[in-house]
Automatic annotation (TrEMBL):
This is GntR family transcriptional regulator. Residues 8-75 form the HTH gntR-type domain. CDD domains: WHTH_GntR. The keyword tRNA-binding does not apply. SUPFAM superfamilies: GntR ligand-binding domain-like, Winged helix' DNA-binding domain. The lineage of its organism: Bacteria, Pseudomonadati, Pseudomonadota, Alphaproteobacteria, Hyphomicrobiales. Gene3D superfamilies: GntR ligand-binding domain-like, Winged helix-like DNA-binding domain superfamily/Winged helix DNA-binding domain. GO terms for molecular function: DNA binding; DNA-binding transcription factor activity. The keyword Transcription regulation applies.
Amino acid sequence: MNPLLKHRTLTAAILDQLRKAILDGTYPAGAQLRQDALAATFKVSRIPIREALFQLDAEGLVRFVPQKGAVVAALSAEEIDDVFELRRLLEPRLLARSIPALDSDDFTRLDALHAEMVTATAANDLGRWGQINADFHMALYARAGLPRSLTIVHGLLQTSDRYTRVHLSDVAGMGIVGMQRAVSEHATLAALSRAGASAAACAFLDQHIRTVHDDLLRELERSQREAMT
């Protein structure tokens, strides 16, 4: 294998493992990610570790703090606003561009992803559910012909996944309600897209993203109040 390709593949594998560990809470907010310790864990040099951490910083999952290095980013209202307002700007635009070009193979994939989401919801599998959710959105926008915007949205969806997992893992069964609502809304998005109802689909998508945004802000406010009591 080409040494450069091998290096990139190694960095990508480490990035994937670190991202998953942050998303599932193995590394909670505020945890310090020491490059030497991670290099020892992965049995690699610090170079691919450093590159993976830089990418996580770009995704908003990690922050570099003076005297501490890489630290898992805290959940904040400002970050939620930034991520979800960007999503509302970019995703309806992508969907409007994509709908006219979606074909039968695309809708077959959307149907398969929706079925997987139903299964993940029934199993309360948050990790799998989050990945399917991102895959479903990206499949909707696959024919937009805007690769730069798609790359940005893919990153935003990964960041959203962390917040969504916090919300869906709450107590009193509200998480499963949120998952079931999303499953229903995704079915509506697919149906509107299949019908070629671009304006209605984009408006529904905007509301879909806004609802999650509002829910997350309420959940963050609730958790902050509880932390103060």
